[in-house]
Hints:
By secondary structure, the protein is an all-beta fold. 0% of the residues lie in helices and 33% in strands.
Amino acid sequence: MTTIDPDRACPHMDFVADVTVNRLSNTEGGPIDAFNAEITIRCAHCDEPFRFMGCPAGLLADRPAVSPDEAELRAPIRPASSDPDFGLGIPGFAVNYREGR
């Protein structure tokens, strides 16, 4: 890791991306019903994590979502040879935020 001058912000010129591909099943030990990719990105020099913007928080079968801290993108994926509805039967969840009263 490079030492960063605290008086000068890191220009974030190089990145490290980690991708984990998960196989999802509706039943323990059952057939693979879906896949998803979990992606994180950080600066290669200062190690600052990057945030994914514009997606709801959660884990959804039909569209990308992010972790509650926005540091991980959770994207459903499918093999190119599969039906377009592959993986849509997997249950998911969404985190909703409401302002306090």
